[in-house]
Amino acid sequence: SYGAGLTRTLRQAGYDTVEVLRPSRRVRRHHGKSDPIDAIAAARTVLSGDGVSQAKDTTGPAEQIRLLLAARTRLISAATAITNSIHSLLTTAPEPLRERYRRLDTPALITRLARTRPTRTITTPQQAATSALHHMARTHQDLHHRAERLNQQMHHILTTHYPGLLAVYGAGTTVAAQLAVTAGGNPGRIHNEAAFAPIPASSGKTTRHRLNPGGDRRANAALHRIALVRLRHDPTTKNYANRRTQEGKTTKEIIRCLKRAIAREVYRALTQPPPTDTTSTLAAHRKRHHLTQTDVAHALNTYPARISDIENHRRPLPQLTHRYHQYLTTLDT
Question: Can you give the residue ranges of every domain in the chain?
Fold first, then answer.
């Protein structure tokens, strides 16, 4: 990150730039550590070609997504911290206030608290607690609204530059954004599974894995989320998991197998994107037949919100998307 400015300058000057892994502890123990020693070690690594990767492009759409994703992550973290503070404050609030909101889940609690009208003059602990909870709830809503706007901006960039990632079953906007950031203009980062996957740490008959200290844990988490979505909703993945379970594989081992397959699928989505994004054309197709989302929802026996989710790519619904596409196709005949 500290070399981002230098990398941009070198690229603009026409130089090929690469990233080098830091020297191993064994090398540093033998040769010491200083800027000249590290520079020589980096040069030797580049000449050998081992542990070298193409430097990320910090001027393209991947960098735009990285900045938006970083801001969204901070906003969601702040909203989560406020949620925890609200629950903590309610625990010590006066009993009438606790009883009023005791049985509400978090979304309903935030909505109710944001709608309260605290008094301007504070004379009792209950009035103070009401005011504090109201302001925290309003801040929580504001943070989520801002995060959603960032999500929409990321989705627009992904639709334009990375349509293949959004087409991956189980990859929503946030997951696809993280995969685009990891690739950074170099899909080989995704294709090289060792860059982020757990590495073997087995002994004898015990099969174990540990995190790769030099890997990309965010990319690994994104692949993990895709695998979980498929295990819950994709019939093909469910059948695969059942078959591997009968072979004696544990759930963790099955997920690792799935993540390796998903990594190869993501690599193909980056290097061979589909010619068109079908979900983005469904809305235009629907409007040509003068149909509303409610009309389509009734025809497909679902909710209008699910049709909106498909057209705006808010969540992966491949089976319903296929039915939606078939329904519009039948109207053309």
Answer: 18-54, 61-160, 190-271, 277-331
277-331 domain in CATH 3.40.50? no
**Residue 250 and residue 256 in contact, taking contact as beta carbons nearer than 8 Å:** no
Inter-CA distances, 280 with 21, 67, 205, 299, Å: 40, 24, 50, 20
Confidence of residue 279 (pLDDT cuts 50, 70, 90): low
Neighbour tally for 47: CB within 10 Å:
9
**d(Cα 197, Cα 261) in Å, to the nearest integer?**
12
Angstrom distance (rounded) from CA 87 to CA 95: 14
Q: How many angstroms separate the Cα of 33 from the Cα of each of 22, 51, 230?
A: 11, 19, 46
Interatomic CA distance for residues 203 and 124, integer angstroms = 64
Residue 214 binned pLDDT confidence (cut-offs 50, 70, 90): low
313 secondary structure, DSSP code? T
- Backbone φ and ψ of 22, nearest 5°: -65, 150
Chain-centroid distance of CA 90 in Å reads 31
pLDDT computed for residue 277 by the predictor: 47
Q: How many CB atoms lie within 10 A of CB 22?
A: 13
Question: The pTM is what?
Answer: 0.74
